[in-house]
Write a structure and sequence with these properties.
single chain, two-stranded antiparallel sheet, Growth Hormone, Chain: A, 469 residues, mainly alpha
């Protein structure tokens, strides 16, 4: 494995770099799956929370480009990316505490400020973190290894977050407030550990940039038009957007689906855990598939596999007595491809940034990953709003007793069927709609190798000139 100029990137360095994704994932899953039910119990409505989550996410439209710009321009002895990760880590810890350990009667302002604090911390950490990973290696397949291990650490964090309620149940701790308090402890305690390891063992050399002069703010926004002209990047960005829309809608409604359609609330954490474990186990398989047929074709296959099984979910509405068994089975089948949806798109994004480097003569990973972050967070915000608002329009009541389904005191059959469709069918349609764009993705392994070869030769020439002077 190489680090830009050909020096070795050790397994320990790859390990410690990827480990930074662990606390981010531990925060991310409860934020989507556990926080809305808790705050709903504390008196906030689903529609209000959906609107606030969308508003907080859309604020990243302004913060993501700023962090991308500042990260690209940073050149100090600590590095380009490390200072920003160091800055965002305390904010993430503090915001996680306030959101996961709320007062007895939180208001909408409290919820808004806590959520915005976490999202701002995500921006400050994730954009430099992703850019850092793209700069660790220029090799087509090695980038898949970096993003795959990074996502595996994310899945490990997610497994920890979803396993905790199961573990605590053995100690008769089943209250959502108590569960989130323990989640906060894990996040706050793990942040300094992973940051120390990454900072000590992983290189972050600001001198590797091809451009010696940092971009101005005007140049930065002017360069956004070059992002729009990067055809392969736009294609993969469209594919990524469809996946984010689908995954976010799925996540927002999964608890309500398990509770009211499958009628197995106590198995919720087990179902999520099954899906995540399957995802982690199958990532190496998708890496081999991508190496054989190309990343974009592997991504298409993973979307088709995932969506095909997701389309079966509404059928559980008609077989309530067997719903749990078939739901767990479908979770495993969907999980086999869910990991590929994330790591393949991120790896492809790192590849297409090389095209911009050739055209502009600049290393602008931060620019591209800030645009990536804007789309990701904007799509997630819109998906949460659509999902929570749509089920509300169907007449779904999250506080209703599942055993009273179809009765005057429970949810109507139409509201439950609407929940099932919004949970699985609509998200899958979002994913499938992007397939034509992904299938015609032009950056193959052979072409990327030529691009990296050109960039490596250019870097060596620049290094030779510098040594002369």
């Amino acid at each position: 494995m190489t680090f830009e100029n050909g020096s070795n990137l050790k397994k320990t360095q790859l390990f410690f770099y990827s480990s930074v994704n662990f606390p981010l994932a531990v925060v991310g899953l409860p934020l989507v799956l556990f926080v809305p039910p808790l705050y709903g119990e504390l008196g906030l409505s689903l529609a209000s929370m959906g609107f606030i989550l969308m508003l907080a996410r859309l604020s990243d439209v302004f913060t993501d480009p700023l962090i991308g710009l500042l990260s690209d321009r940073t050149k100090i002895s600590l590095g380009r990316r490390k200072p920003w990760i160091l800055l965002g880590s305390p904010l993430l810890a503090i915001s996680t505490y306030f959101l996961f350990v709320p007062p007895d009667q939180p208001d909408l302002l409290y919820f808004l400020l806590s959520v915005m604090g976490i999202y701002l911390a995500f921006t400050i950490i994730q954009i430099p973190f992703a850019s850092w990973g793209a700069e660790l290696s220029g090799d087509y397949n090695e980038r898949s290894k970096i993003t795959a291990l990074r996502e595996q650490f994310g899945y490990i964090g997610t497994i920890v977050a979803v396993s905790l309620p199961i573990l605590l149940s053995y100690f008769d701790i089943v209250n959502m407030r108590s569960i989130l308090s323990f989640e906060a402890i894990i996040v706050i305690s793990s942040i300094p550990i992973v940051i120390f390891g990454a900072f000590k063992f992983v290189p972050d050399d600001p001198a590797k940039s091809l451009r010696k002069k940092a971009m101005t703010l005007r140049e930065y926004f002017r360069s956004l038009k070059f992002v729009l002209k990067n055809g392969p990047y736009i294609r993969i960005l469209i594919g990524f957007t469809g996946s984010v829309l689908g995954i976010s809608m799925d996540g927002a409604l999964s608890f309500f689906f398990v509770k009211h359609v499958v009628n197995a609330e106590s198995y919720y954490s087990v179902a999520i855990l099954l899906s995540i474990v399957t995802s982690v186990v199958c990532i190496p398989i998708w890496k081999r598939i991508a190496a054989k047929v190309g990343k974009h074709k592997a991504l298409v296959y993973s979307i088709l596999w995932f969506s095909g099984w997701a389309f079966c979910m509404p059928l559980l509405y008609f077989i309530p007595e067997q719903a749990l068994f078939f739901f767990l089975t479908l979770q495993v089948l969907k999980g086999m491809a869910s990991g590929a949806l994330v790591f393949l798109t991120t790896s492809m994004a790192a590849d297409v940034i090389d095209i911009d480097t050739i055209r502009s003569g600049q290393e602008r990973s931060g620019l591209y990953f800030s645009a990536w972050g804007i789309i990701q967070k904007g799509a997630a915000a819109i998906a949460l709003f659509i999902a929570l608002t749509a089920v509300d329009l169907f007449g779904f009541d999250p506080t209703a007793d599942p055993s009273q389904r179809g009765k005057i005191n429970g949810n109507s059959d139409m509201s439950i069927l609407g929940l099932a469709i919004m949970y699985s069918v609509v998200p899958s349609l979002f994913k499938i709609s992007t397939l034509p764009f992904i299938w015609k993705y032009p950056l193959t392994e052979g072409r990327q190798i030529k691009i990296r070869g050109y960039l490596d030769r250019k870097e060596r020439r620049l290094a030779d000139k510098s040594s002369v002077y």
